[in-house]
Amino acid sequence: MTNxxxxxxxxxxxxxxxxxxxxxxxKHGQRPPGSPxxxxxxxxxxxxxxxxxxxxxxxxxPVAQKAFMAMPLVCSLLTLCSLPLYWIAPRLSPLPAxxxxxxxxxxxxxxxxxxxxxxxxxxxLNLSASLPPxxxxxxxxxxxxxxxxxYEWRFHRWCPRIFPVFVVLLLLSVLYVLGTTLAAALTxxxxxxxxxxxxxxxxxxxxxxxxxIGLVFTNFRxxxxxxxxxxxxxxxxxxxxxxxxAENLSFENTEVTALVTGSEEAGLEGARAYIQAxxxxxxxxxxxxxxxxxxxxxAHLALYNRDLNGRVAHDPRVCELVxxxxxxxGLDLRNATxxxxxxxxxxxxxxxxxxxxxxxxxxxxxxxxxxxxxxxDVVEEDCLAKTLQLLLEICSEYDAA
Length: 401
Fold this sequence. Notes:
This protein is α/β, with parallel strands linked by helices. 48% of the residues lie in helices and 18% in strands.
């Protein structure tokens, strides 16, 4: 296929995406993981794809809506339990703080969701639609966005410029309590009668502000509108394949799959459910994945070659494919790292599928990240248009290779 997405056509599609964003946010309301709003958004996207001739799969899976974002709350509650134990049972006092650290490491560092079993479950959806090749199918490329939006982070909404300070205070408070309670457990603490243990116990009062941060870190009553994160990515992949279908365009040997996962903000649950449900076909046909997340600011459009707190390296060949396609679109895509958190790309890379991720958001992070400022206004049409051109070029180069 030699057809290109002209700047004029890309601009028209970008304008349509912004209109659709506003429509989804207005019609379906809040879209946290596994919510009626998320499911209604997926149903709307399905109807739009069916209208242009796609066979669309809408696959349900269970998700603990609030478990992942409750991690700061759970860690603070557990750590607070250590404080009275310091005085009444010193040898037991480190246990709750140890559990808090385990929860933090499992949930955030490794995205191993040990809290999910303790939280109520809801139903989320994955949407997928495939554009077959004009000839024999020899390979597949998945363009993946997500439909859900995040519960609001209070301190990032209130103080975006110093947001990392609040996170550090929470972590230091937990670690300080862990250190002092461990010392008390090993020595008998206040039972020894030494004044130093009395003062250490009283010093726990200085950890209370940090632990309070964890208690109120996530606002479960308010959900980000999620225009940038990640209606921008979800609609880029669906609009691109809709345009290709309407124009009767396809690649010779490459199947293009538009995937809109649910519950990415619950810790990549949708991507993992999709991989589990489609493992056999993903193994049967060579497949690469491009995760598209928060394509809002053209100045920050980058190739994310490392993910999951910088721990996961994406496939260098796919990264070079994205970089080459970027050059052909007039973009010099720098390497970037998801330093805290993860994109859906992690789930695919960990499953052994060659993957790269693209994102266009200020990594500071942006003032609208995970809060009510993530409206249609923060998404630049120029960024959407360039992302559409980049995705088509990636598919074209992958097919040619």
